[in-house]
Amino acid sequence: MPERRADGPPDREERRRILRERMGGYRIDRGGRWWYRGAPLDLEIERQFAEGLEQFGDGRLRVMCEGEPCYVTCEDAPFVVRDLRWERARAGGSAARDRILLSLSGGIEEPLDPATLHLDARDVLYCRVRSGTLEARFGPRAATRIADGMRPHRDGWAIDLEGRTWVIAARPAVDP
To answer: What are the domain boundaries of the chain?
Structure first.
């Protein structure tokens, strides 16, 4: 293998090796933490990658790093809802829960789209984030906090947000 020149850019073979390494070395663990070749990423890089994460129609996840595509494997959902905050709207002098702001892994915050809430076969709560393009699993703290606002419904569970009742769907089990 040719040696990399210390005084210049990598040669073609070195660039290919770097690209192969990047394409397969990134991973998101079940807790939403990012890893590269067995080492945790710096939190600032993790935030940048979380913001740039995209998913293709075939389910592959990708981020861009220095202009190169880097494919990411994921143990569960690419994001974990670590915490949440109820934002209350005042209507007629009384406080009503109006919407929920999610704190996601990677340091991202965004409002919950209640239409995307769903339970898996083990009754673990998930939702869609990033304009519905990616999935997030509720971590223990966030799941406990949102459960305070949920109530039994004839179709399972429901939550009242944004002035209406949202039924929390059960996602059908997918065979491996």
So the answer is: 16-74, 79-162
| Distance in angstroms (rounded) separating the CA atoms of residues 132 and 115 | 10
More confident residue, 10 or 85: 85
Query: pLDDT tens digit string along 89-108?
Result: 665 544 455 899 999 999 99
Q: Which CATH class is domain 16-74?
A: alpha beta
The side-by-side arrangement of strands in the sheet containing 118-119 is 108-111, 94-104, 79-91, 134-138, 125-129, 118-119, 164-170, 156-161, 150-153
Separation CA 157–CA 154 (nearest Å): 8
Q: Which of 79, 122, 85 is closest to 104 using CA atoms? A: 79
- Tens of pLDDT along 139-176? 999 999 999 999 999 988 999 998 899 999 886 555 44
Question: How is residue 86 written in tokens?
Answer: 């109820």
Token pair, residue 154, equals: 């004839």
